[in-house]
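Record passed on here:
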Amino acid sequence: MNVLSPQCNDTLRFLVPTDFSAGAEKALLHGLSLAHQFEAEIHLLHIVTRPATNGSIPAFPDVEAYEHHQEGVALQHLRRLAETTQQSGVRVQPVLRCSDDVATSILDYAGKHTFALIVMGTHAHQGGIQAPLGRTAEQVVRCARGPVLTVAPHVEVIPGFIQNVLVSIDFSEPARHALMLANEMARHQKAHLTLFHVIEPARQCIFYDGHVTELATRASMTTQEAHEALRRLPIDETGLLDVKTSVVQGAPGTMIVTIAGKLAAHLIVQGAHGHTDIDHLELGQVAEEVIRTAHCPVLTVKRVLVEANV
């Protein structure tokens, strides 16, 4: 099964939101490299935010005239960026939208199309015609139906250079989808694939003499059990340099980033759950910490939207 291969004559599509900042440009380079590898087209999306005012704006007779001007300027930037990007040989479709809510607009557009991947930066430049993309990146990760690749401003990995892939496995359904996608990307890159599990000791709180005491209890599985469970996972090793397993104990978010640094990982792939209040809390504790602190791109997966049998 190729999870990033178009079916029949269908075109594989990636969505890349941009606010024209340096962070968004870095994310676009990573998206462009992946689009080359998987023969995908890019929808380059820019959201023009409406001004938060009901009065007049200097140099413009009214808010409507200001919005029209902003849309015109943004469209010029977008078309110029699309033309430059398209010179690399990847088909690019520029898309301009006007909205009060950037994240909602990105998610609405993604929901109306079938995108195999959303690629976006996690930092945005404020002011001018640029939308507050950085403030909405985590919301898109939480609520998007499909995989989202985030690229933080401090990431120094060369776009397209993926030789070490670390996939975080907690044995959940989202982790299964994350493994499918990590396996496919690692095969395309002929890379090393590391299956990684963090054992987090279960903890319980008890009341004693008016005080709350937290006690560590036995973890859900031993290190040996975790290694064996990782080895039983279905992996297509065709084209891979090797497959390794790694199991540590500690706080999941911290350990994922730490081990990725020690392995010099070029990509972290992690599963994430839905967007209910409880799942949001879980995502915030682990996946969002990884997204904010990892020194390589992070691919967060709830489920794979594009699957094709070969």
About this structure: The chain has two domains: 12-151, 164-301. The longest strand covers residues 40-49. Confidence is low (pLDDT under 50) at residues 124-133, 276-282. Residues 198 and 252 are 6 Å apart (CA to CA).
